[in-house]
Give the backbone structure.
Amino acid sequence: MPSAIKPKIVNASDDALVIAGRRYTSRLLVGSGKYRDLEETRLATEASGAQIVTVAIRRSNIGQQPGEPNLLDALPPDRYTILPNTAGCYTAEDAIRTCRLARELLDGHTLVKLEVLGDEKTLYPDVPETLKAAQILINEGFDVMVYTSDDPVAARRFEEMGCVAVMPLAAPIGSGLGIRNPYNIRIILENARVPILVDAGVGTASDAAIAMELGCDGVLMNTAIAAAKNPVLMASAMKKAIEAGREAYLAGRMPRKLYANASSPLDGTFF
């Protein structure tokens, strides 16, 4: 199965992810929840090599609860790009309110990850509510990275309205099922002009590599690392998988064939 879009042959060391005008050398984005404690959060994040860390504003203390452990002590903003997210929001209004709070807590920070959920069991997105929230946030000057379904039409709408990145799920959040929808993701990638990052569904390193080999610009994950038996080691594995998958995509895989050919020609050989 050939890649959805033709890879541009570049020097991998010069291959940067650009989001809202800022360049990142790591294409792995990680979450900050579900760890045993802040020390494990810090160690796993360091091992992942991630430069963007998403933070659930409704579930994490980044200063709104004085006197309690502050996540920013483990993940300082001068080292990481903090990406506030609206996890746990089920209406556009709640999501917008959460983003405004994050901007206040982070001194005017405008880069946010928007998710408006529509179902408590699957955590699938409510696309109409997400579209509503995205438009309002963009109008207010936010740089919106948006979690959405694997619907190519919805992905295009988010891009057209001005979202700086579109983040389709590969499987339900926290499921670890891997890339269940490669064809939908390939269709989204074909005409995308903003970064496309897989968000949700990754369970292990091979899943991350597959996402990158498809041509995705990055992968965001949390549970796959935090729920591993050894989160720090898994974070390191995910770092390598993202890098290997990206390099394989840039290199361009050999065509799939039904039958193998000899790797060396037989003409002119002596037996």
User: Anything to note?
Assistant: DSSP finds nine helices and ten strands in the chain. The beta strands are 17-19, 22-24, 28-31, 52-56, 81-85, 111-114, 143-148, 165-168, 197-199, 218-221. The two ends are 37 Å apart (CA to CA). The chain has a mean pLDDT of 92.
